Amino acid sequence: MNDDIERVLYSQTDIADACARLGKQLSGDYEGKVPVVLSVLSGAVFFTTDVMRQMNTYTQLDFIDVSSYHGGTKSSGEVQLVTDISRDVSGRDVLIIEDIVDTGRTLKFIIDLLKDRHAKSVKVCTLLDKPTGRVLEAKADYVGFVVPNEFVVGYGLDYKGEYRNLPYVGVLKPKIYMDK
């Protein structure tokens, strides 16, 4: 797998430092509250657990699975709800944890869903923000790193379900996804 990576953008140490920074900030911002932490499957699982372990506040964890990439390198433009959240968010503070905010479609879909369900507040924490990829207005409140407009994998991010288990975030060599 490592041979498929053009270059490492963020090392394990970089990611751990970002998780500690974000966890500390979230602890302060959610002091005295019990937010529903909504991890976006499957990409955000690693980031969610690492950030939550750095938070010194009560939380409740839930999951949602939505997809617009369907295994490819570009968004299809259509967001599908694959797995819905299991708890009622009406009147609750919700913190969405994402792996990457790219086109904004997925994030807007989830935010709209939570607002329709009368969440008290909705904030977004993302490992990676790719503002050059935006098609819809979408803003993360907490950002680990701003990433260049390249196809990245690792630490939860995948290509066709692979590379999620890399302990870093790297740029996938174009020949890997161009040949398939």
TrEMBL record:
Its EC number is 2.4.2.8. It is an enzyme of class 2 (transferase). Belongs to the purine/pyrimidine phosphoribosyltransferase family. One of its GO terms (biological process) is IMP salvage. Pfam families: Pribosyltran. InterPro entries: HGPRT, Hxn_phspho_trans, PRTase-like, PRTase_dom. Purine salvage pathway enzyme that catalyzes the transfer of the ribosyl-5-phosphate group from 5-phospho-alpha-D-ribose 1-diphosphate (PRPP) to the N9 position of the 6-oxopurines hypoxanthine and guanine to form the corresponding ribonucleotides IMP (inosine 5'-monophosphate) and GMP (guanosine 5'-monophosphate), with the release of PPi. Its cofactor is Mg(2+). The gene is hpt. The keyword Nucleotide-binding applies. This is Hypoxanthine phosphoribosyltransferase. Residues 11-160 form the Phosphoribosyltransferase domain. The lineage of its organism: Bacteria, Bacillati, Bacillota, Bacilli, Lactobacillales. It is found in: Cytoplasm. Pathway: Purine metabolism; GMP biosynthesis via salvage pathway; GMP from guanine: step 1/1; Purine metabolism; IMP biosynthesis via salvage pathway; IMP from hypoxanthine: step 1/1. It catalyses: GMP + diphosphate = guanine + 5-phospho-alpha-D-ribose 1-diphosphate; IMP + diphosphate = hypoxanthine + 5-phospho-alpha-D-ribose 1-diphosphate. It comes from Pediococcus parvulus. Keywords: Cytoplasm, Glycosyltransferase, Magnesium, Metal-binding, Nucleotide-binding, Purine salvage, Transferase.
